[in-house]
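Box S2. Input/output pair 1.
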Amino acid sequence: MQGGAYDDVGVPGVGRDVTSVLFVCTANQCRSVLAEAIAQRRFAGLPFVFESAGLIEGGRPVPPNGVLVAQEWGFDTSRHISRRADVRNLRGWDVILTMSRRHTRELVAADSELWPRVFTVPQFARWLDEHPPRRHVLIREWIEQEAADRPRSDMIGSNIDDDVADPIDDPPEAWRDLVGELNGYIERIAGNLAPRTRNVSHPAWARRS
C-alpha cells in the first residue's frame, strides 16, 4: 500500500519471473486497497507483486470505517493515499483484477490490448477454478493463450456475481463483509496459483462468528 506521493500507477517494473497483479476500483480508497493487502499477505514470499489503483484522480485517504476494519485484520491502511491507474500504460501487468464490469470496460476501452488479461475479481476466481494452470508455466503467457476466446460479453452491463460492492459510505459491517468476500476470492485464486501457502488469518470477531 502506498503512502505519501500518489503518482499514477503504470508499468510494474518487475521481471518475467515475477507475476504482477494490479487491483483496480473506482477511487482506490476501499476495494482495491484491501484486495492488495490481502493478496500481499496471502502470497508473501512467493514471486508475485501486487499493487492497487483507481480510475479517478488520486490523493484520497481510506475512510475511517475502512481503516478500523482493516486494523481488525491486521492491515494498516491509515497512511494509504489513493493513486490513479495510468490506463494507457498498463500493458506490463500480467493480470489486472477489477471490482466491477464497468471498471473492466473502462480499461479495455482505453487500451484494447489489455483484453483478455482483465477480469473482475469474482470472474478470475471462477475462471481459475475452471482453467487450473499447468505447472511451470509463465502466468501471463498461459492466460493470454487460455483466455484468448473469452467472450467480451463478460464486461457488458453489471452482474451481481461479477461485481464487488463499494462500501465507501457504509458502516463497519459492510466493510467486514467486503474483507470477508475479498479474502474468499483471493484464497480461491491462491489455491490455483499458489496452493501450498497458508490462508490469511481471520480476525478474532470473524473466528467467533
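Box S3. Input/output pair 2.
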Amino acid sequence: MVETIQWTDAGVVMIDQTRLPREQVFVTCRTYLEVAAGIKDMIIRGAPAIGVAAAMGVARGALDSTDLAAEFPVICDTLAATRPTAVNLFWGIERMRRLYASLAGSPVDEIRAALVREAQLVYAEDIAINKAIGAHGEPLVPAGKTVLTHCNAGALATAGYGTALGVIRAAFAAGKNIDVYADETRPFLQGARLTAWELQQDGIPTTLITDNMAGYFLAKGQIGCVVVGADRIAANGDVANKIGTYSVAVLAKENNVPFYVAAPVSTLDLSLKSGAEIPIEERASVEVTDMFTPGVAPPGIAVRNPAFDVTPNRYVTAIITEKGVARAPYVESLAAMIG
C-alpha cells in the first residue's frame, strides 16, 4: 500500500496526489511553510491525512525555530489557515498545542523532541484507527453486492488503509465477493484518479462511473450500500464531505440503499449543532474550467466551486467510527463516542 505521508530526518515526505495516477512523485517538505503549502495546494488531501500533516508540520516548525516561544503560535496559525472545512486539521494542531502547553518550563530541546514523538504517534494511531473502522464497518457490507463510493477516503486520504475504503478493504478481505463503483468526483477527480487507482492496486474489482450516473445504478438495484468518508460531522449527525455526496445520499434514500459514513472520532465536531454551521471551502474556478480539460468552458464564464456539501442526518443510515457504529438519534450516539 502506498505511503501517503512519512516523517523523515530530511522533512515531511508526501506523495503528490495532484500527479496521480500518471506518475508517483514524492515531495519532501523541509519546512512547516512547505507543509502548509502541501495542504493548501492538495498535494496531500483527505481529512485524516491533513490532520497527520498538520501535526507533522507543527513538529517540523518547532525543530527549525530559533525562538520557539515566539514562533510556535505563528506555526500553528499558519497551518490552521490552509483549509477551513476538514476539522481534523484543527484537531491535529490543537493536540500539538496542548502538548506544548503541558511542557511549559521544560528545556527547548525536550519540547521539540516531544512534539516530534507526538506527530509520529498521530501517524501510527491513524492507521490503527482506520483498521478499527474497517472492522466495525465490514459486517454492514452485504456479500455479493456492489459498493458505491464517492471521492477518495482510502489510504491516500489517511496515514494508511483508509476510512470508507478501509471498510471496503475489510469486506473484500473477509471474502464477501464484492465489487466497487467509484464516482469520478468532479471537479478534482479524486474518484477517477485516486480511488480507482488505489483499488486497482489492491486487486479489488472496480468500475469507474461519472458522478451523474450514480442514480442510474442505484435505481437498477445492484448497489448493496454506499460508503463515503467525511471531513466534518456536526453533533446532530449532519455530514460535510466532498461536493456531490449530498446528491448520492438523496439518491440512495430514494432507492432504499443504506448510506454509511466512515470517519474517525477526530472528525466529529460536537461544538457545532448542525451542518449549517460547518464552513464550506470554495476553491479556484480553474479547477472547473481548465484543470484536466483545458478550454472546456468559454473564457470569462462565471464559476462556483464549493469543495464540499452537507448531507443532512436523515439521509445517513449509520456513522462508522473506530469506537463502533453510531445510529440515529445522532445527538446521543455521537456524544457517547466522544465520552
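Caption for Box S3: Residues 19 and 165 are 21 Å apart (CA to CA). The chain has a mean pLDDT of 97.
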